[in-house]
Structures are given as structure tokens and as C-alpha cells.
Design a protein that fits this description.
This protein has about 120 residues and is an alpha+beta fold. It has helices at about 1-20, 105, and strands at about 25-30, 35-40, 45-50, 55-65, 70, 75, 75-85, 90-95, 95-100, 110-115. Strand 1 (about 25-30) and strand 2 (about 35-40) form a beta hairpin. Helix content is about 20%, strand content about 50%. Keywords: Signal.
Length: about 120
């Protein structure tokens, strides 16, 4: 009996940790904007973009996802991404598009983004 209790408790902890993972997000810039890419898995990720002659990259250290769920998939709402330097990007999702409402201009990032296939 004790074995079943331990196995049940272990399964519950594993399930709770699996369900508490943050979102998986992969968005890319839309032409004619310069190439840019944001990838998030769980509570961290990276942002890469081009500005002028330079390729830039910064770590994402915090993710706040307030999008509603529709049919098990994230729907319209906001995502707030905190970059390593403290800049907060606020992206509003509208269907498969994301519009940057704060932070992108300061970092010279595109304003319009689109969902990309996650490899």
C-alpha cells in the first residue's frame, strides 16, 4: 500500500510540474522589417534581431502570459517578456499576429510579428 501512495504522490508532483511550464512561443518578424526571432520555452528564451549592420541577441529572463485559452490553444491577449537588460516587451496577440505595444522601438526591434512553426 505504501508503494502505491509513494508512486501516486510522485506522479502527482510530476504532473503538476509538467502542467506549470510556461508557454512555448516562436514568433518572427514580418517583411519588410529586418530579420528577427523570439523563442520562449517555459519561463525563459532568447530574442535575436538585426539593426543596421549588427546582429543582436538578448536573453529573455521572465515571461508573463495573459492570453486566454481557446480550444486548448492560446488566443488573444498579451505576453510580457523581460529581457536581460531590464527592458520589457509587451506583445499583444491578435490571431496569429503579435503587435509590439511597448519596448520594441527602444531596442530597434520590429513592431509586427507572426507566429512561426515550432521545431
Amino acid at each position: 500500500m505504501k508503494v502505491w501512495v509513494v508512486l501516486g504522490a510522485g506522479a502527482f508532483v510530476w504532473l503538476a510540474s509538467a502542467c506549470s511550464r510556461g508557454p512555448e512561443i516562436h514568433i518572427t518578424s514580418q517583411p519588410p522589417a529586418a530579420a528577427a526571432d523570439i523563442r520562449v520555452e517555459g519561463d525563459s528564451g532568447s530574442a535575436t534581431w538585426t539593426w543596421g549592420h549588427g546582429d543582436l541577441k538578448e536573453k529573455i529572463i521572465a515571461v508573463a502570459d495573459s492570453r486566454s485559452k481557446r480550444g486548448g490553444h492560446p488566443a488573444d491577449g498579451d505576453i510580457r517578456l523581460t529581457l536581460e537588460d531590464g527592458t520589457v516587451l509587451r506583445l499583444a496577440q491578435q490571431r496569429s499576429f503579435f503587435i509590439c505595444q511597448a519596448g520594441c522601438e527602444k531596442k530597434h526591434m520590429p513592431i509586427t510579428w507572426v507566429s512561426a512553426a515550432y521545431e
